Amino acid sequence: MNMKVLVGLVALLSAIALCTILNLASGVFIPLVVAWFILQVFRPIIKLGWRLHLPPVLNITLVFAIFFSLCVVGIYFCASQAVEFNRAYNLYYSKLNTMFNDLLKVLNIPPSTISDFNWFNLIGRYMRNISELILAFSSKFVLTLVFLMFMLLEAPYVNEKIDKSFSGASAFKIKNILDTISQQISRYLGTLSLISLATGFCAWLVLAALGVELAAGWGVLTFLLNFIPTVGSIIATIPPVLMAVLQFSPGFIKPLIVLLSLTSIQITIGNVITPKVVGDRLGLSPVVILLSLLLWGAIWGIPGALLSVPIASIIKIICENIHSLRPIAVLMGSGEAALHAAPPIARERKKNSPPPLPKEQPAPREE
Question: What is the mean pLDDT of residues 171-182?
Answer without folding.
Answer: 84
